[in-house]
Amino acid sequence: MLSALGLARRLAAGELDAAAVIDLCAAAIAEREAEIGAFAMLDIDAARDGATRAAAALAATPLAGLPVGIKDIIDTADLPTEYGSAVYRGHRPRTDAAVVSMVRRAGGLILGKTVTTEFAFRQAAHTRNPVNPAHTPGGSSSGSAAAVAAGMVPIALGTQTGGSVIRPAAYCGVAGFKPSYKLIPTVGVKCFSWHLDTVGLFAADVADVAFAAAAITGRDLRVDGSAPATPRLALLRDHLWPQASAAMQQAVESAARTAANAGARVEELTPPPILEEAWRAHAIIRDYEACRALAFELDRHRDRLSPVLRDLLDAAAAITPEAYDAARRTTRVARRALAELMDDCDALLTPAAPGAAPHGLASTGSPVFNHLWTLMGSPVVNVPGLTDAKGLPLGVQVIGRFGRDRAALEAARFVEGALAPALGNAVAAR
Question: What is the per-residue pLDDT for 420?
Answer without folding.
Answer: 80
